[in-house]
């Protein structure tokens, strides 16, 4: 959709539907379509087609079908593997499995079909312009508070256990948790950077975002670290920080510093909603892009790709291996 299409889209949508359009796919000015990707509770990627409508004067020429096929292509490109749910199809036709092609598309809003589909939990409404992680439901995302210090301290060590093990040694992992917790407890200046995901009342995940010009760092104290980790462990941790904190964040960029979901809560879509929230926060700060570092072998790369991140360049080398334990990293970035 382009600026020149606003009037047309408003008219066509108003003709056919009662609610507002979130996003329009397709350059054709003959029809329009809103769509969104979501992750189901099982973690399978689905695409939800929001509005398919064709101007009355052009109906019956296969334009609606072409738009829905375009949605299928876009959904596949985004890694959707499951189904496309269409709100507006006749009752028996919704829940179209992507490989099949026999669904009769209809541009008519079928309210009954929509209600039944909602009731069966087959489709989920688009998240409108609200803040991801604040809608009613089991998951809430909020800023870090005093009560989260223990959780954040432990989560960051457990989530990045491979890096921590490399830095401090396997036998000192519990010491690393203690040291991290102490450090976050007194580093109130950085709490605003951390968002905590709470699932059914229990802290389940954490994410940190950093913006251009932010220089405040956690209050790392060598003496304290030594008492928990010994000299070698402290030295390892110091160099790990020296490498991972040396990130150049340009104006208009947001850096996704950490993201982790507790192992008990993985695969429920929490990571995805945290990433949606990261996009939202970055846009609020008028960022044009958001980026992160991830180990090339990390399964999370798939999640980032589904969310629209692309690998801008691989990096690593000897210093990366010495400090983080891996020499193969990706810089991934998403345009907002
Ligand atoms: C990556 C992570 C934050 C995703 O959170 P989540 O709530 O499990 O994510 P969702 O349910 O929204 O999405 C599932 C996707 O998460 C990723 N994922 C799931 N378990 C994972 C794990 N143990 N390690 C890494 N990524 C994982 C996968 O990409 C998965 O998609 P797939 O099933 O197609 O492979 C979470 O799994 C995690 O904390 N992993 C360990 C820490 C980590 O690797 N963080 C990223 C560092 S850059």
Automatic annotation (TrEMBL):
Residues 1-145, 139-336 form the N-acetyltransferase domain. GO terms for molecular function: acyltransferase activity, transferring groups other than amino-acyl groups. Pfam families: Acetyltransf_1. The keyword Cytoplasm does not apply. InterPro entries: Acyl_CoA_acyltransferase (IPR016181), GNAT_dom (IPR000182), YpeA/RimI_acetyltransf (IPR050680). Gene3D superfamilies: 3.40.630.30. Keywords: Acyltransferase, Transferase. It comes from the Eukaryota. This is N-acetyltransferase domain-containing protein.
